[in-house]
Amino acid sequence: MKKTYFLISIFILSICFFSCAIKQPNSKLNIEKCECTLDSASVDSVSLEQQELDHFYSLMAYAVVHKDWQINALEGRGYNIGAVLVDSAKYVVNWARNSVNIKMNGTQHGEIRVIQSYLDSVQSFSLKGFSIYTSLEPCAMCSGMMKLTNVYRTVYGQTDPAYGKALERLQLESRSCCRSGYSPYPRPVISDKSPDPISVEIDSAYANYKGKYIVDFLTTPEAEKLFQKASKMFQQYKIAKYVENQKYIDSAHKFYNLVGPS
Protein backbone atom coordinates (compact mmCIF):
# COMPACT_ATOMS: atom_id res chain seq x y z
CA MET A 1 0.00 0.00 0.00
CA LYS A 2 2.80 2.43 0.92
CA LYS A 3 4.50 1.60 -2.34
CA THR A 4 1.31 2.43 -4.27
CA TYR A 5 0.91 5.79 -2.48
CA PHE A 6 4.56 6.58 -3.23
CA LEU A 7 4.16 5.88 -6.95
CA ILE A 8 0.98 7.98 -7.13
CA SER A 9 2.78 10.88 -5.40
CA ILE A 10 5.65 10.70 -7.87
CA PHE A 11 3.18 10.71 -10.76
CA ILE A 12 1.34 13.80 -9.45
CA LEU A 13 4.61 15.68 -8.85
CA SER A 14 5.75 14.88 -12.39
CA ILE A 15 2.55 16.33 -13.84
CA CYS A 16 2.92 19.52 -11.79
CA PHE A 17 6.56 19.93 -12.82
CA PHE A 18 5.74 19.46 -16.51
CA SER A 19 2.89 22.00 -16.31
CA CYS A 20 5.19 24.59 -14.71
CA ALA A 21 7.84 24.02 -17.37
CA ILE A 22 5.34 24.83 -20.12
CA LYS A 23 4.37 28.10 -18.40
CA GLN A 24 7.96 29.26 -17.90
CA PRO A 25 8.89 31.96 -20.46
CA ASN A 26 12.46 30.60 -20.58
CA SER A 27 11.41 27.09 -21.50
CA LYS A 28 12.50 25.51 -24.78
CA LEU A 29 8.88 25.19 -25.83
CA ASN A 30 8.43 28.97 -25.84
CA ILE A 31 11.78 29.68 -27.49
CA GLU A 32 10.98 27.34 -30.36
CA LYS A 33 7.73 29.21 -31.04
CA CYS A 34 9.38 32.64 -30.83
CA GLU A 35 9.78 34.81 -33.91
CA CYS A 36 12.48 37.37 -33.13
CA THR A 37 12.48 40.47 -35.32
CA LEU A 38 14.99 42.95 -36.67
CA ASP A 39 14.93 46.64 -35.88
CA SER A 40 13.25 48.59 -38.69
CA ALA A 41 16.43 50.55 -39.39
CA SER A 42 17.94 47.45 -40.96
CA VAL A 43 15.61 48.00 -43.92
CA ASP A 44 16.03 51.00 -46.17
CA SER A 45 14.74 52.08 -49.58
CA VAL A 46 17.55 52.98 -51.98
CA SER A 47 17.01 55.33 -54.91
CA LEU A 48 18.34 54.54 -58.38
CA GLU A 49 20.83 57.37 -58.01
CA GLN A 50 22.08 55.92 -54.73
CA GLN A 51 22.28 52.45 -56.25
CA GLU A 52 24.69 53.82 -58.83
CA LEU A 53 26.89 55.27 -56.11
CA ASP A 54 26.68 52.02 -54.15
CA HIS A 55 27.90 50.16 -57.22
CA PHE A 56 30.65 52.69 -57.93
CA TYR A 57 31.96 53.02 -54.36
CA SER A 58 31.96 49.24 -53.89
CA LEU A 59 34.15 48.91 -56.96
CA MET A 60 36.40 51.57 -55.44
CA ALA A 61 36.81 49.52 -52.25
CA TYR A 62 38.01 46.58 -54.34
CA ALA A 63 40.32 48.89 -56.32
CA VAL A 64 41.89 50.23 -53.12
CA VAL A 65 42.69 46.68 -52.03
CA HIS A 66 44.06 45.61 -55.40
CA LYS A 67 46.38 48.61 -55.49
CA ASP A 68 48.38 46.95 -52.68
CA TRP A 69 47.62 43.26 -53.26
CA GLN A 70 49.09 40.73 -50.81
CA ILE A 71 50.05 37.23 -52.00
CA ASN A 72 50.34 35.69 -48.52
CA ALA A 73 47.78 36.01 -45.73
CA LEU A 74 50.42 35.56 -43.01
CA GLU A 75 53.05 37.94 -44.34
CA GLY A 76 53.17 41.49 -45.62
CA ARG A 77 50.69 44.22 -44.71
CA GLY A 78 47.68 42.12 -43.78
CA TYR A 79 44.62 40.64 -45.48
CA ASN A 80 43.20 41.68 -48.85
CA ILE A 81 40.28 43.59 -47.35
CA GLY A 82 39.67 47.31 -47.53
CA ALA A 83 37.14 50.08 -47.08
CA VAL A 84 36.32 53.61 -48.17
CA LEU A 85 34.54 56.20 -46.05
CA VAL A 86 31.88 58.45 -47.60
CA ASP A 87 30.66 61.54 -45.78
CA SER A 88 27.10 62.76 -45.36
CA ALA A 89 27.46 64.83 -48.55
CA LYS A 90 28.27 61.59 -50.47
CA TYR A 91 31.96 62.35 -51.10
CA VAL A 92 34.80 59.90 -50.40
CA VAL A 93 36.89 61.27 -47.55
CA ASN A 94 39.10 58.34 -46.48
CA TRP A 95 40.29 54.84 -47.32
CA ALA A 96 42.05 52.06 -45.46
CA ARG A 97 43.18 48.46 -45.81
CA ASN A 98 43.48 45.59 -43.36
CA SER A 99 46.95 45.90 -41.76
CA VAL A 100 46.94 43.33 -38.95
CA ASN A 101 50.40 41.95 -39.84
CA ILE A 102 52.38 45.12 -40.38
CA LYS A 103 50.86 46.62 -37.22
CA MET A 104 51.13 43.36 -35.25
CA ASN A 105 47.64 44.19 -34.02
CA GLY A 106 44.58 42.03 -34.64
CA THR A 107 42.21 45.01 -34.40
CA GLN A 108 43.59 46.71 -37.50
CA HIS A 109 40.79 45.79 -39.88
CA GLY A 110 40.04 48.06 -42.82
CA GLU A 111 36.81 49.45 -41.33
CA ILE A 112 38.42 50.14 -37.95
CA ARG A 113 41.33 51.94 -39.56
CA VAL A 114 39.19 54.02 -41.92
CA ILE A 115 37.12 55.20 -38.95
CA GLN A 116 39.96 55.88 -36.53
CA SER A 117 42.26 57.67 -38.97
CA TYR A 118 39.48 59.96 -40.17
CA LEU A 119 38.23 60.84 -36.69
CA ASP A 120 41.82 61.55 -35.63
CA SER A 121 42.32 63.84 -38.62
CA VAL A 122 39.18 65.91 -38.01
CA GLN A 123 39.17 65.64 -34.20
CA SER A 124 35.59 64.40 -33.99
CA PHE A 125 33.61 61.85 -31.99
CA SER A 126 30.93 61.09 -34.55
CA LEU A 127 30.43 59.88 -38.12
CA LYS A 128 26.73 60.65 -38.17
CA GLY A 129 25.38 60.44 -41.70
CA PHE A 130 28.54 58.75 -43.04
CA SER A 131 28.65 55.46 -44.97
CA ILE A 132 31.34 52.78 -45.23
CA TYR A 133 31.89 50.69 -48.35
CA THR A 134 33.87 47.57 -47.55
CA SER A 135 35.12 44.73 -49.72
CA LEU A 136 34.10 42.12 -47.11
CA GLU A 137 31.04 41.98 -44.86
CA PRO A 138 31.92 43.59 -41.48
CA CYS A 139 32.74 41.44 -38.46
CA ALA A 140 31.38 42.01 -34.94
CA MET A 141 34.30 44.25 -33.96
CA CYS A 142 33.95 46.53 -36.97
CA SER A 143 30.16 46.54 -36.63
CA GLY A 144 30.47 47.62 -33.00
CA MET A 145 32.79 50.46 -33.97
CA MET A 146 30.33 51.61 -36.62
CA LYS A 147 27.54 51.72 -34.07
CA LEU A 148 29.56 53.56 -31.46
CA THR A 149 30.66 56.20 -33.96
CA ASN A 150 27.11 56.60 -35.30
CA VAL A 151 27.80 55.47 -38.88
CA TYR A 152 24.58 55.64 -40.89
CA ARG A 153 25.09 52.79 -43.35
CA THR A 154 27.53 50.18 -44.62
CA VAL A 155 27.55 48.50 -48.02
CA TYR A 156 29.62 45.33 -48.29
CA GLY A 157 30.89 43.39 -51.27
CA GLN A 158 31.80 39.81 -50.45
CA THR A 159 29.53 37.96 -48.02
CA ASP A 160 31.25 36.40 -44.99
CA PRO A 161 29.40 33.17 -44.07
CA ALA A 162 31.29 32.77 -40.78
CA TYR A 163 31.63 36.27 -39.32
CA GLY A 164 29.01 38.24 -41.25
CA LYS A 165 25.53 39.47 -40.32
CA ALA A 166 27.02 41.10 -37.21
CA LEU A 167 25.02 44.32 -37.60
CA GLU A 168 21.84 42.31 -38.12
CA ARG A 169 22.54 40.35 -34.95
CA LEU A 170 23.05 43.56 -33.00
CA GLN A 171 19.67 44.75 -34.26
CA LEU A 172 17.91 41.57 -33.17
CA GLU A 173 14.84 42.03 -30.98
CA SER A 174 14.86 38.99 -28.71
CA ARG A 175 12.87 40.18 -25.66
CA SER A 176 9.80 38.37 -26.93
CA CYS A 177 11.75 35.12 -27.14
CA CYS A 178 12.51 34.66 -23.48
CA ARG A 179 12.82 36.46 -20.16
CA SER A 180 16.56 37.04 -20.68
CA GLY A 181 16.16 38.47 -24.21
CA TYR A 182 17.55 41.80 -25.36
CA SER A 183 16.35 44.89 -27.15
CA PRO A 184 18.25 46.01 -30.30
CA TYR A 185 21.60 47.64 -29.61
CA PRO A 186 21.50 51.48 -29.76
CA ARG A 187 22.47 53.46 -32.86
CA PRO A 188 21.30 51.15 -35.65
CA VAL A 189 23.46 50.92 -38.78
CA ILE A 190 21.88 49.94 -42.08
CA SER A 191 23.70 47.00 -43.68
CA ASP A 192 23.24 46.38 -47.41
CA LYS A 193 24.77 43.97 -49.89
CA SER A 194 26.47 45.77 -52.77
CA PRO A 195 24.60 45.74 -56.10
CA ASP A 196 27.81 45.37 -58.13
CA PRO A 197 28.22 42.13 -60.18
CA ILE A 198 31.78 41.45 -59.01
CA SER A 199 30.58 40.78 -55.46
CA VAL A 200 28.35 38.00 -56.79
CA GLU A 201 31.27 36.49 -58.69
CA ILE A 202 33.48 36.60 -55.60
CA ASP A 203 30.79 34.94 -53.49
CA SER A 204 30.47 32.21 -56.08
CA ALA A 205 34.23 31.68 -56.30
CA TYR A 206 34.54 31.44 -52.52
CA ALA A 207 31.66 28.95 -52.35
CA ASN A 208 33.70 26.65 -54.62
CA TYR A 209 36.95 27.25 -52.74
CA LYS A 210 38.29 24.11 -51.09
CA GLY A 211 40.35 25.87 -48.42
CA LYS A 212 39.28 26.64 -44.88
CA TYR A 213 39.80 30.36 -44.35
CA ILE A 214 38.35 33.28 -46.26
CA VAL A 215 41.59 35.27 -45.85
CA ASP A 216 43.48 32.49 -47.62
CA PHE A 217 40.96 32.56 -50.46
CA LEU A 218 41.62 36.28 -50.75
CA THR A 219 45.24 35.56 -51.72
CA THR A 220 44.39 33.16 -54.54
CA PRO A 221 44.99 34.03 -58.21
CA GLU A 222 41.24 33.69 -58.82
CA ALA A 223 40.44 36.27 -56.14
CA GLU A 224 43.08 38.64 -57.46
CA LYS A 225 41.66 38.29 -60.94
CA LEU A 226 38.24 39.37 -59.70
CA PHE A 227 39.63 42.28 -57.66
CA GLN A 228 41.61 43.39 -60.71
CA LYS A 229 38.44 43.21 -62.79
CA ALA A 230 36.64 45.38 -60.23
CA SER A 231 39.53 47.83 -60.21
CA LYS A 232 39.42 48.20 -63.99
CA MET A 233 35.66 48.68 -63.90
CA PHE A 234 36.10 51.43 -61.32
CA GLN A 235 38.83 53.21 -63.25
CA GLN A 236 36.81 53.05 -66.48
CA TYR A 237 33.66 54.34 -64.77
CA LYS A 238 33.96 57.98 -65.81
CA ILE A 239 30.46 59.01 -66.85
CA ALA A 240 27.58 58.88 -64.36
CA LYS A 241 24.25 57.40 -65.40
CA TYR A 242 22.55 60.09 -63.33
CA VAL A 243 23.88 63.62 -63.83
CA GLU A 244 23.71 64.45 -60.12
CA ASN A 245 26.29 61.74 -59.42
CA GLN A 246 28.94 63.08 -61.78
CA LYS A 247 30.55 65.33 -59.18
CA TYR A 248 30.93 62.40 -56.76
CA ILE A 249 32.46 60.19 -59.43
CA ASP A 250 34.92 62.87 -60.52
CA SER A 251 35.93 63.53 -56.91
CA ALA A 252 36.38 59.82 -56.16
CA HIS A 253 38.74 59.34 -59.11
CA LYS A 254 40.89 62.27 -57.95
CA PHE A 255 40.90 60.82 -54.45
CA TYR A 256 41.87 57.36 -55.75
CA ASN A 257 44.87 58.77 -57.58
CA LEU A 258 46.30 59.76 -54.19
CA VAL A 259 45.88 56.25 -52.71
CA GLY A 260 49.25 54.65 -52.03
CA PRO A 261 50.64 51.73 -50.05
CA SER A 262 49.26 51.33 -46.53
Automatic annotation (TrEMBL):
Gene Ontology molecular function: hydrolase activity; zinc ion binding
InterPro entries: APOBEC/CMP_deaminase_Zn-bd, CMP_dCMP_dom, Cytidine_deaminase-like
Keywords attached to this entry: Metal-binding, Signal, Zinc
Domain of life where this protein originates: Bacteria
Start and end residues of each CMP/dCMP-type deaminase domain: 54-177
Metal-binding listed as a keyword: yes
Span of the signal peptide: 1-21
Keyword Phosphoprotein included in the entry's annotation: no
Protein name: tRNA(Arg) A34 adenosine deaminase TadA
